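lol forgot to send this yesterday, sorry. C-alpha cells for the thing we talked abt
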C-alpha cells in the first residue's frame, strides 16, 4: 500500500514534551537490562514489562511482552484506519554492560542531565529510541493517524541471534508497509541522517598451542616458543604496516561522496595524540565501506597472576566488520583461512567459527522514504544526510527477507558525542525532542 498524502496531511500533532521524554528515559535507564550477563536476566524481563506498560499507558490497545522465541521483547499495535498504511517503529531495550564503573562520571543506571545531554547506560543505545516512539504516540494523544506497530527487541546487543525465528513466529503481528529503525547514528547534533548501508559482522576464536604443558621460562625460553608470543605474531599478520586489513578478498566495493575530516574522526574516536588513523583512502570509505578487524578478547594469564612460565595455550576472539556487498559467512571463512595459513613457527592453530551477521543496503527510495526526508527536513531545517554506518544491525536483512515489499528507514537519536557502548553514554535531549517532532510529522504525512 502506498501512502495517501495530501498537501496539508492530517491535523498537526501536539508538540512533544521534553519533560515527558526525560521522565520516560529516566524510568527506562534505571532498569539494568544488560542482555549479555546472565545475572541481569530478571532485569531484562523487568525492562520489557516496563516498556509494555508505558505504551499501554500511552493509549495502546494491545501491548504485550513476547518471550516465546527470544529474550523478552515488546509488540504494541494500533490498527490502521481505513486507507492508511501501517508503520512499524523499532528500538531495543537491552543494553551493553557498564564496563569499568570508575570511568563513569555519573551513575550508569541513572539518567543525569548535564546541559543539553542526558547521561546513562542506554540513553542513546537504544532506550532513547523507545522514548522517541513514546513521544511520537503521545503527540497524537495515543491515537496515531496510521496503523502503528511498536517492536522493541530484547537481545540486539548480543547480535539478535533469534531474530529470524522471531519474525517467522510473529510475522503477521509485525507486518508493515514501512519500518523505521531508531538505532543508527546522526551526523552531528542538530544534523539528522538516514543510514544507507551497514557493515556486517562476524567473528571467530583462534587458539594457539605450542607445548603439552607449561614449563620454566628460564630453563626452556629462547628455544621453545610460548603460545602468547606466537599468538601475538599471528594476530599481527591481520594488518599491513599502515593498518589496512591484510586478509585477501575484502576490498571495499562502495564509495561515499562525503567529506569526513580526519580531525573530526579523531575527536569522535578519542584518538590519543600521535596515534595514527589506520588504512588508506577517505575516512568515510574506510569507516563505512571497508573491512575492520579487531581483537576483542584474549584468554591468557593476567599481569597480576603472571609467573616466569612459558604459556602452552592462548586464545583470542577476533571480530571482523564485513564490507557492504560481501557475504558475512564467506568473509569469515577468508579470515579463518588467513589465520590458519599464517601460523608462525609451526605452532598448532585451531580456528572456531562464531556468529555471522550480513551487511545491508538501505536505498532511500520510494514515497515513504521521501515523506520521512520531508518531515525531518522541515523540523530540523535541513534535509537528512545520507550516510553509511560502520556498525551492524542484524535486524535489517531479516526484515528485508520477511517483508520484501516494505520500505526500511534507519535513523537515530544518537550523535558522535553519544559514547555508545562506552562509559558516559549520553543523548542530546533537544535532538531527541526534534526527532519526536519529525517522526510525528512523518506519520501525519502518511495519513489518508
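and heres what i got for the seq, position by position
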Amino acid at each position: 500500500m502506498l501512502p495517501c498524502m495530501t498537501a496539508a496531511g492530517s491535523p498537526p500533532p501536539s508538540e512533544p514534551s521534553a519533560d515527558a521524554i526525560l521522565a520516560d528515559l529516566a524510568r527506562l535507564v534505571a532498569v539494568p537490562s544488560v542482555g549479555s550477563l546472565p545475572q541481569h536476566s530478571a532485569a531484562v524481563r523487568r525492562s520489557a514489562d516496563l516498556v509494555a506498560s508505558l505504551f499501554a499507558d500511552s493509549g495502546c490497545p494491545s501491548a504485550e511482552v513476547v518471550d516465546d522465541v527470544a529474550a523478552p521483547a515488546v509488540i504494541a499495535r494500533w490498527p490502521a484506519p481505513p486507507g492508511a498504511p501501517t508503520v512499524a517503529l523499532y528500538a531495543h531495550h537491552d543494553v551493553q554492560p557498564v564496563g569499568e564503573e570508575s570511568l563513569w562520571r555519573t551513575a550508569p543506571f541513572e539518567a543525569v542531565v548535564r546541559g543539553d545531554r542526558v547521561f546513562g547506560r542506554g540513553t542513546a543505545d537504544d532506550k532513547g529510541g523507545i522514548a522517541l516512539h513514546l513521544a511520537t504516540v503521545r503527540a497524537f494523544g495515543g491515537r496515531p493517524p496510521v496503523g502503528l506497530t511498536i517492536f522493541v527487541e530484547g537481545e540486539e546487543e548480543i547480535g539478535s541471534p533469534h531474530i529470524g525465528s522471531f519474525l517467522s513466529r510473529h510475522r503477521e503481528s509485525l507486518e508493515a508497509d514501512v519500518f523505521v529503525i531508531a538505532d543508527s547514528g546522526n551526523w552531528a547534533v542538530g544534523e539528522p541522517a538516514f543510514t544507507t548501508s551497514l557493515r556486517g559482522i562476524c567473528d571467530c576464536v583462534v587458539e594457539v598451542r605450542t607445548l603439552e604443558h607449561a614449563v620454566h621460562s628460564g630453563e626452556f625460553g629462547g628455544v621453545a616458543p610460548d603460545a602468547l608470543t606466537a599468538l601475538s605474531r599471528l594476530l599481527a599478520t591481520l594488518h599491513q604496516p599502515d593498518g589496512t586489513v591484510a586478509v585477501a578478498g575484502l576490498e571495499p566495493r562502495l564509495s561515499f561522496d562525503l567529506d569526513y575530516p580526519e580531525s573530526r574522526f579523531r575527536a569522535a574516536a578519542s584518538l590519543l595524540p600521535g596515534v595514527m588513523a589506520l588504512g588508506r583512502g577517505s575516512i568515510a570509505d574506510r569507516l563505512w565501506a571497508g573491512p575492520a578487524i579487531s581483537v576483542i578478547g584474549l584468554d591468557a594469564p593476567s599481569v597480576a597472576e603472571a609467573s616466569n612460565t612459558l604459556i602452552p595455550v592462548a586464545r583470542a576472539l577476533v571480530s571482523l566488520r564485513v564490507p557492504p556487498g560481501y557475504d558475512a559467512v564467506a568473509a569469515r571463512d577468508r579470515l579463518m583461512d588467513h589465520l590458519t595459513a599464517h601460523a608462525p613457527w609451526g605452532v598448532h592453530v585451531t580456528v572456531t567459527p562464531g556468529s555471522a551477521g550480513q551487511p545491508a543496503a538501505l536505498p532511500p527510495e520510494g514515497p515513504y522514504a521521501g515523506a520521512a526526508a520531508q518531515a525531518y527536513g522541515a523540523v530540523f531545517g535541513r534535509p537528512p544526510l545520507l550516510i553509511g554506518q560502520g556498525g551492524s544491525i542484524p535486524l535489517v536483512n531479516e526484515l528485508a527477507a520477511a517483508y520484501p515489499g516494505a520500505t526500511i528507514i534507519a535513523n537515530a537519536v544518537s550523535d558522535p558525542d553519544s559514547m555508545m557502548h562506552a562509559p558516559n553514554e549520553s543523548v542530546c535531549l533537544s535532538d531527541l525532542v526534534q526527532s519526536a517532532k519529525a517522526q510525528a510529522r512523518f506519520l501525519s504525512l502518511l495519513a489518508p
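The chain has two domains: 18-198+359-445, 200-251+290-357. anyway ping me if u want another try
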